[in-house]
Write a structure and sequence with these properties.
Blueprint lengths: L1 E3 L6 E3 L1 E3 L12 H7 L9 E7 L2 H7 L9 E11 L5 E4 L3 E10 L8 H19 L8 E3 L3 E4 L2 E13 L2 E11 L9 H8 L8 H22 L2 H10 L6 E8 L2 E12 L5 E5 L4 E5 L8 E8 L2 E4 H6 L9
Parallel strand pairs: 3-4, 4-5, 15-16
Antiparallel strand pairs: 1-2, 5-6, 5-7, 7-11, 8-9, 9-10, 10-11, 12-13, 12-16, 13-14, 14-15, 16-17
Helix pairs in contact: 1-5, 3-5, 3-6
Protein name: BPL/LPL catalytic domain-containing protein
Keywords: Ligase
GO molecular function, one term: biotin--[biotin carboxyl-carrier protein] ligase activity
């Protein structure tokens, strides 16, 4: 990879790669990734290993020593990170990576997970189109899951710390590319809907993701989320969804039906109740919040709050 050395005009190449024996199946090809990558910053510093406890731990624990935009990739993780301190193991066939970025405005940090989710879905769309493959129709399930044909195939996790007036953000992403157990994966779905033998490569997906993310992130920093909002709504599952909201006021708890309209400026769900009242929905049960999301109803199927927010597919909430 390449990054600018301070006080020089030269580019320095640097690659950190494990010397452990490479797996014989589905190992990440570093050279292929760099051949496909066309970013200026993101993904230009790569750490790869066939097996790690957690890519998220690598980048978050070494944040100050890594250039912003560094990425860590592992073929297998055995202590992957999820929300609510969940720990899990990812099998071969999944694209597992974590990368770094910095921001100064803490008010918009929660929206980074939406930028990452959107960049990944758009990257896969572009790869399918450019390679003459059928579109997979991957959708975003709020707040941070990716769904394919009714099954979860991906997740995003963002964590941050504050230092020297900047938010140091670690973004972890997992995507089920080749492992079709226990439900499905991208390439299994491609083989189902395409008459020819075809597949997506993890290296191309990661390179395309960073191309999209860098573009979206720069736009986000300069113009906010508004220019990306319509594209996000085209990709998510929730426009017009019916939800049950629990509202606690003055010691009384009331459940009301509402319809999702979109996102609020702070990144939570915006819904309108059957009584005409607008409400902001948060993904947990803190009673100081205005609304507590109890359940979703979508296409005749109801997901309770736990299933919606923790996911129910082969990829946990992230890395």
């Amino acid at each position: 990879c390449q990054f600018q050395v301070p006080n020089t005009n030269a580019n320095t190449s640097l690659r950190l790669q494990s010397h452990l024996p490479r797996p014989t199946n589905a190992s990440f090809n570093v050279d292929s990734f760099f051949t496909s990558l066309s970013t200026c910053r993101f993904g230009r510093f790569l750490i790869w290993s066939p097996r790690l406890p957690s890519t998220h731990d690598v980048v978050s624990h070494n944040f100050s020593e890594l250039p912003v935009g560094s990425v860590c990739v592992a073929d297998v993780q055995f202590k992957g990170k999820g929300r609510s301190a969940n720990v899990w193991e990812s099998p071969p066939g999944c694209l597992m990576f974590s990368f770094t970025l910095q921001m100064e405005d803490g008010r918009i940090v929660p929206l980074v997970q939406y930028i990452a989710s959107l960049a990944l879905t758009e990257a896969i769309k572009d790869l399918c189109f450019n390679n003459g493959l059928p579109q997979l129709g991957i959708k975003i399930k709020w707040p941070n899951d990716l769904y394919l044909n009714g099954f979860k195939v991906g997740g995003v996790l963002c964590t941050s710390t504050y230092k020297s007036k900047k938010f140091n953000i670690s973004v972890g992403i997992g995507l089920n590319v080749d492992n079709k157990q226990p439900t499905t994966c991208l390439n299994a779905r491609l083989q189902q809907i395409a008459s020819m033998s075809c597949q997506l490569r993890k290296e191309d997906i990661l390179a395309s993701f960073f191309d999209k993310f860098e573009n979206f992130f720069d736009q986000f920093l300069s113009q906010g989320f508004k220019p990306l909002e319509e594209l996000y709504y085209q990709t998510w599952l929730h426009s017009g969804q019916r939800v049950i909201v629990q509202d606690t006021r003055e010691g009384q708890t009331v459940e009301n039906a509402a319809t999702i309209q979109g996102l609020t400026s702070s990144g939570y769900l915006l819904a309108i109740g059957d009584d005409g009242q607008m409400c902001e929905l948060h993904p947990d049960g803190n009673r100081s919040f205005q609304g507590f999301l109890l359940s979703f109803s979508f296409r005749g199927e109801t997901w309770d709050e736990f299933a919606l927010l923790t996911g129910d597919g082969p990829i946990p909430d992230s890395m």
